[in-house]
Design goal:
Blueprint lengths: L1 H10 L1 H21 L13 H13 L3 E5 L14 E6 L2 H10 L6 E4 L9 E7 L8 H14 L1 E11 L9 H4 L4 E11 L6 E9 L3
Parallel strand pairs: 1-2, 1-4, 2-3, 4-5
Antiparallel strand pairs: 5-7, 6-7
Helix pairs in contact: 1-2
Keywords: Methyltransferase, Transferase
GO molecular function: methyltransferase activity
InterPro entries: Methyltransf_25, SAM-dependent_MTases_sf
Length: 205
């Protein structure tokens, strides 16, 4: 009960109980698809994810790609003609496909290296990237940007504990990408860390 009260204080009554229903539904799906517990957290309990949806929709993109999409909670709510999600978890991808049977979201098992020769209005990668070292992530983004045309990049940073790596995107992304907007802080549920969401825009052609 104390966790529910804390959630109500953090995100409000409506999102707490709407998220609780989705959480229970995801637990039922977990018995069939066996995905990681991390994916049980519904978007209603993650204000940063809802804000990503809001900001990306405001950009009115035609194509959106996400690496580390999980069950597709973010992509599912984005309005774009082309929506493609990648995740290393085959079980999460299978469940995402089940949840989106009637939509046009495309899900594939994999990561950054699967994205080649695409014109991408908005690229999203949050949470997942904190398991990758900054040096490796810099190389990954350099390759991704070289092989694709990307206008906006949406990433997150977390201060404090709870994650293996903490990134300075000004040092990671090529200089033609400049910070357009920073959202947050959002308090994480697991500890006292704070999360920020950053939107970078390609300013040079």
């Amino acid at each position: 009960m104390s966790k529910i009260i804390a959630k109500i204080k953090r995100i409000g009554v409506f999102d707490t109980f709407r998220g609780l229903r989705r959480h229970q539904y995801y637990k039922t799906l977990q018995t069939e698809y066996h995905f990681d517990n991390w994916h049980l957290s519904p978007i209603e309990w993650r204000p940063y994810a809802r804000d990503i949806v809001k900001e990306v929709n405001h950009l009115k993109p035609v194509s959106v790609y996400e690496v580390g999409c999980g069950l597709g909670d973010i992509l599912r709510k984005i309005h774009a003609k082309t929506r493609v999600g990648y995740d290393l978890s085959e079980s999460a991808i299978k469940c995402a496909k089940y949840l989106d049977q009637k939509s046009e979201v495309k899900y594939e098992t994999g990561t950054f290296d699967k994205i080649i020769n695409q014109k991408i209005d908005c690229f999203i990668s949050v949470n997942f990237i904190h398991e990758i070292s900054s040096d490796d992530l810099k190389q990954i983004f350099a390759s991704l940007i070289k092989q694709n045309e990307i206008h906006y990049i949406v990433v997150d940073s977390v201060t404090g504990g709870g994650y293996k790596y903490h990134h300075d995107y000004a040092a990671i992304l090529p200089e033609e990408y400049q910070l357009m907007k920073k959202l947050g802080p959002y308090r994480t549920e697991e500890n006292d860390s704070k999360r920020y969401v950053m939107i970078f825009e390609k300013t040079q052609v």
